[in-house]
Design a protein that fits this description.
Elements lengths: L1 H12 L4 H6 E6 L3 E6 L6 E6 L12 H22 L3 E5 L10 E6 L20 H14 L9 E2 L3
Antiparallel strand pairs: 1-2, 1-6, 2-3, 3-5, 4-5
GO molecular function: catalytic activity
Protein name: HIT domain-containing protein
Pfam families: HIT (PF01230)
Length: about 160
């Protein structure tokens, strides 16, 4: 109950870094975090951003928010791995270009264009309208909140 109340307060003060807004599509919200789809159709790639203003590092979150953020990240990773049949899930927080705390969740396959290297440095291929529509449908099925992990689906 306290986590939800705190998130409502945070949400009013939270603003997304302009680079994340430019490079991603809004998907929906977990209790603490907002979830966005990277505009690169080569990889199923979601970004999780806690809606807490001014946070650049995981340790800057309260203990309760750290636990919630990691629960959301783990749940998101497991759903993506299952639905997309990942060979490997890459979960990373860099922050060199975008200091706002965010975790990348990238589905990887042994035959993808960047394997075995990181996806960073591979030129992005923006979604076409048809491929984006298909991805939205797939994500809608993958990210339906289950059990104790509610997800507010609002993909714009």
């Amino acid at each position: 109950m306290a986590i939800i109340l705190i998130c409502i307060i945070y949400k009013d003060m939270f603003s997304l870094h302009p680079q994340l807004a430019q490079d991603t599509f809004y998907v929906g919200d977990f209790p603490l975090s907002t979830c966005r789809l990277m505009n690169d159709m080569q990889f199923p790639w979601l970004i999780l951003i806690p809606r807490v203003p001014g946070v650049t590092e995981l340790y800057e979150l309260s203990q309760a928010d750290q636990e919630q953020f990691l629960r959301e990240s783990s749940w998101l990773s497991s759903q993506l791995a299952r639905v997309f049949r990942a060979d490997k899930m890459n979960v990373a927080a860099l922050g060199n270009m975008v200091p706002q705390l965010h975790f990348h969740h990238v589905v990887r396959y042994q035959n993808d264009v960047a394997w075995p290297k990181p996806v960073w440095g591979t030129p992005a291929v923006p979604y076409s309208n048809d491929v984006l529509a298909h991805m939205r449908q797939t994500l809608m099925l993958a990210l339906r909140g289950q059990g104790d992990m509610p997800f507010d689906w609002r993909m714009d």
